[in-house]
Design goal:
The complex is a heterodimer of chains A (491) and B (227). By secondary structure, chain A is of the alpha+beta class. Chain A contains nine helices and 13 strands. In chain B, helix 1 links the parallel strand 1 and strand 2. Classes of the chains: A alpha+beta (491), B alpha/beta (227).
């Protein structure tokens, strides 16, 4: 049950995670790719621009630097350069002839760059100078053995790139969150109907046959809900028809039983009078009259059983529970019916076997089981009252002909007779009634049988603790409990 | 002793005829009718010794007849009821029926019940008034007084009080009370006794919550104090 509830949530999580993964990876690829492209183009653009500026600067220097450059000769050069927004270092030999910033020395220039510049090339390198990212471009004034280095700051370029990266990162995160939300919403919208349907199926299974699903959309779910509803409707109709048929059958049984009651009452009275006058009857009428009297008895038993069946069916039977000693009840039941000489009763010694039960009902069940055994068992019938861990039991064993195995599963069905050719004195309802009564009392009846060896019927009832004082069978009525109240009695 | 007159009110012709026949052979003079109203007017007009009334009747049911008769007569009444309707039995007794017999019945059983009721009714008529404390119970008049004023008990309450008062100071078990007051042998619903005792206390005791007359003997039954 728990597993069924957990599944949709797990599936929902899985869908959301898939969305996040797909969205996260593709957004990341897009962001990184565009960042790299922009960075590449911005950096090479910066190099291009700086190289052009450096070429121009070198050309200007070539025209203005005559002979060995002196600080004085450098001044117009620096003045000119100052306009360009870059720093300049001029080195001649190993001497720094001039620098816009006093902190600049020959050490500031990366060595690789100097080597390239000294070999006569126009070269550049990126370097970090006093914490500022610079693009350093160097070149020689030909034949003058003077090197010029220009520092183009890339601080704003780097800042732009950082900003771009930051924006792209934010965008990526937003995409992931959006994807997660979309995933969850979609999962809920997809799986919501699934969860509702499983809820509906469960309540159908629990017997709420009027459960239906709302048909809200025109998509697959809508179609599905519609067919689910059709199924539920068909089920409801079918079950309604079945229970109506069953109800009709029950009413019929009850009506028949009650209608039979009046003529039967007359028959019983009449038969009782016929029986008293059997002796005076002419020879030819006596035997039929005897049979008639006996058959009225059978009919009476059948109608009594039918009435009891219809009452059990109505489900309004009251069970009055009181503590009873199963052994003394069984003993009394056997004695009062005159079976004492044919039945051997064994028990668990002196200890009472106390059950919480309804006396008349329990007596009927025991009488039915013992009566059947007495009727079918040709030889001895043994009744054993005993106790198990959770149950008290009455075990009725006979060494009669036994019951063929194919009949055993149907033994407790109404009107089932193991041997249809031989109609016994029973109504065919006895065992069915016994079982229903046993179940009303919280118990059950089990049967074992082997043809040729005999049968054993075991009635099991829930046990209670022995009464304080140990005298079973005394039923203090103040402790008696009524499970289902009787109809209110008018005054 | 013989030639006692019985009025049988029963609508089913077969049951009516065979019952009348059986009672006639047993020595009773039986008058029959199928109709409730007719039964009531005959019972009022003619001097019968016992009424045998079916519960389900056309025009006026057995309970109504019993209720009407009890307004001014102590004539013995036996109700004919269906075995399954235990409430019918209890209601009938509450309304003042003396006994009931469940259908289907065999004639010897009916005759025995009729004789027992007649015998008891005669005995009641001859039984002197019982005095217990300030309670005064008159079996012949089917009435009980306390300190001179009438208690207006129902038939069941009266019979219960009478049973207790016949043996003051002695415990009566629920089973015995069920048997004597309700003629219950098979139902064994001792709760019926408890409910009736509650109602009786409400009429008899000064303070029903603190009963001084009718005491509960836990786990056994009830006792009327001798005072």
């Amino acid at each position: 049950m728990h597993r069924h509830v957990a599944a949709p949530a797990r599936l929902r999580r899985r869908i959301a995670v898939s969305f996040i993964l797909v969205a996260g990876i593709s957004a990341a690829a897009l962001a990184v790719g565009s960042f790299l492209l922009v960075r590449q183009s911005r950096l090479s653009e910066s190099v291009e621009r700086s190289l052009n500026q450096a070429r121009l600067n070198l050309a200007f220097a070539r025209q203005n630097l005559a002979g060995r450059p002196t600080p004085k000769a450098l001044r117009p050069l620096f003045d000119f350069y100052a306009e360009g927004g870059f720093d300049t270092v001029v080195i001649s030999g190993s001497r720094v002839l001039g620098a816009r910033k006093p902190s600049f020395s020959s050490a500031t220039i990366p060595e690789d760059l100097r080597r390239l510049v000294l070999s006569g090339q126009l070269a550049y390198e990126r370097a970090d100078v006093d914490g500022i990212p610079e693009l350093v471009v160097g070149g020689q004034v030909p034949d003058r053995s003077t090197e010029l280095y220009f520092f183009f700051s890339e601080q704003s370029l780097q800042r732009d790139l950082r900003q771009l990266g930051f924006v792209l990162g934010i965008g990526w995160a937003a995409a992931v969150v959006l994807a997660a939300l979309a995933g969850l919403v979609l999962a809920r919208r997809t799986l919501g109907p699934v969860a509702r349907a499983s809820e509906a199926a469960r309540s159908l299974a629990e017997g709420l046959l009027d459960t239906r699903l709302p048909v809200e959309t025109r998509d697959e779910f809508g179609t599905w809900a519609a067919s689910f509803n059709e199924m539920a409707q068909a089920l409801e109709d079918k079950i309604a028809a079945l229970s109506e048929a069953r109800e009709r059958e029950r009413r019929f049984t009850s009506d028949v039983a009650h209608e039979l009651r009046t003529p039967l009452a007359a028959l019983v009275s009449e038969a009782s009078m016929v029986r008293e006058h059997l002796e005076q009857m002419p020879e030819g009428a006596r035997r039929p009259a005897e049979l008639l009297v006996a058959d009225v008895g059978r009919l009476r038993k059948l109608v009594d059983d039918l009435i009891e069946v219809s009452r059990l069916d109505a489900g309004t039977e009251a069970v009055r529970v009181e503590p009873l000693d199963l052994r003394s009840l069984t003993d009394a039941c056997i004695r009062s019916r005159g079976w004492a000489d044919r039945v051997e009763l064994t028990g668990p010694g002196d200890d009472p076997v106390v059950v919480e039960s309804d006396r008349p009902r329990l007596e009927r069940v025991v009488a039915n089981l013992v009566g059947n055994a007495v009727e079918h068992g040709r030889r001895g019938v043994t009744v054993r009252v005993g106790r198990e861990a959770t149950a008290a039991l009455v075990e009725v064993t006979d060494v009669g002909p036994g019951i063929p195995p194919e009949h055993l599963p149907h033994l407790f069905e109404r009107f089932y007779k193991a041997d249809p050719s031989r109609s016994g004195p029973g109504s065919g309802l006895g065992l069915a009634i016994a079982l229903e009564n046993a179940r009303l009392l919280g118990g059950d009846i089990e049967v074992w049988s082997e043809p040729g060896r005999g049968s054993r019927f075991t009635l099991r009832l829930p046990v209670s603790e022995p009464l304080p004082g140990g005298h079973g069978g005394v039923a203090p009525s103040e402790q008696a409990e009524v499970r289902q109240p009787e109809k209110e009695v008018g005054t | 002793m013989m030639d006692e007159r019985i009025l049988l009110v029963e609508d089913d012709p077969s049951i009516r005829e065979i019952t009348a026949l059986g009672l006639g052979r047993a020595g009773f003079r039986v008058t029959t009718t199928a109709d409730g109203r007719d039964g009531l007017s005959r019972a009022r007009r003619d001097p019968f010794d016992l009424l045998l009334i079916d519960v389900m009747l056309p025009t006026l049911d057995g309970f109504e007849i019993c209720r009407e008769i009890r307004k001014d007569s102590r004539i013995p009444v036996i109700m004919l009821t269906a075995k399954t309707d235990t409430t019918d039995i209890i209601v009938g007794l509450e309304l003042g029926a003396d006994d009931y017999i469940t259908k289907p019945f065999e004639l010897p059983e009916l005759v025995a019940r009729v004789r027992a009721v007649l015998r008891r009714s005669r005995a009641d008529r001859e039984e002197p008034t019982i005095q217990v404390g300030d309670l005064e119970i008159d079996p012949a008049g089917f009435s009980a007084r306390k300190g001179g004023s009438d208690l207006s008990l129902t038939a069941t309450e009266f019979r219960l009080l009478l049973e207790l008062a016949r043996r003051p100071g002695q415990v009566m078990t629920r089973e015995i009370l069920l048997q004597r007051v309700w003629n219950y042998d098979y139902l064994g619903d001792s709760r019926l006794v408890d409910v009736a005792v509650q109602r009786l206390r409400a009429k008899v005791e000064d303070d029903p919550a603190e009963p001084r007359l009718i005491k509960t003997v836990r786990g056994v039954g009830y006792r009327l104090e001798r005072t």
